Amino acid sequence: xxxxxxxxxxxxxxxxxxxxxxxxxxxxDIIVGYNKYIxxxxxxxxxxxxxxxxxxxxxERCREALKLSKEKNVALISTGDSGIYGMAGLILExxxxxxxxxxxxxxxxxxxASILGAPLMHDNCxxxxxxxxxxxxxxxxxxxxxxxxxxxxxxxxxxxxxxxxYLKEAIEIIKEFRGENTPVGVVxxxxxxxxxxxxxxxxxxxxxxxxxxxxxxxGNSKSFIKDGFFITPRGYKxxx
Length: 240
Ligand code: SAH
Hints:
This protein is an alpha/beta fold. It folds into 2 domains: 4-106, Cobalt-precorrin-4 Transmethylase, domain 1, CATH 3.40.1010.10; 109-231, Tetrapyrrole methylase, C-terminal domain (Methyltransferase, Cobalt-precorrin-4 Transmethylase, Domain 2, 2-Layer Sandwich). The protein is built from 8 helices and 13 strands. It has helices spanning 19-27, 35-40, 42-45, 58-68, 88-94, 108-116, 136-148, 166-175; strands spanning 4-8, 30-32, 49-51, 74-78, 100-103, 117-118, 124-128, 152-156, 183-188, 196-201, 214-218, 224-226, 229-231. A 5-stranded parallel sheet has the order 3-2-4-1-5, with helices on both faces. Strands 7-8-11-9-10 form a 5-stranded mixed sheet, with helices on both faces. Strand 9 (183-188) and strand 10 (196-201) form a beta hairpin. Helix 7 packs parallel to helix 8 (166-175). S-adenosyl-L-homocysteine binds next to helix 6 and strand 11. Residues 3-204 form the Tetrapyrrole methylase domain. This is Precorrin-3B C(17)-methyltransferase. Pfam families: TP_methylase (PF00590). Its EC number is 2.1.1.131.
């Protein structure tokens, strides 16, 4: 009898994996996930058996992982946190009597925040702009209500070739509720090879360079930029 570990490996490099995530990958017999993610941790995957079935087919991959785990220890890999736009939910939906353990990881918003400064110091939310499984009208409604509620907003899946204008539209919605000097941070490939980032404002934001490897963080009404850092105050009353 084996076990299925649903592992969030963090944003990329081994050094940002939790000790527990590293330990379960090392002790698993089979690794399941996209080749690209498995490559990121290949120094610990070594010559283990790999099951990978390309970009589509999440359901098939999860079913296979569950099946394989009846016999052997299996690590199903997600980047970031496996419970945030990852595989943990689908595994639990499909699970029969297999033993499953979910291992958390550093999600993209936390990774990106550490690079930008401290943008997530107050109430914040994640919104994915991907309409593959969510109606675009619902996405826009969530952006609007998050903006109205003054949440700091992290936009996952901000832009892809199939829906190039969603990010621009989301920014326009947010502008209705936030000042034009509200900071906006973009981080591409946070904490992994190819990392790039920039900090701008709602007024000057250009979506041109944003892609699917990026996350976009929009501050709340109190966020500001100081010495190149994007900061949202927690609310401490500072002595002058
Ligand atoms: N489970 C992942 C999210 C998967 S959704 C997590 O918790 O981070 C995929 C989206 O996450 C990407 O389109 C991008 O918006 C964001 N993302 C994931 N890793 C990232 C990284 N290292 N740098 C910037 N954005 C990242």
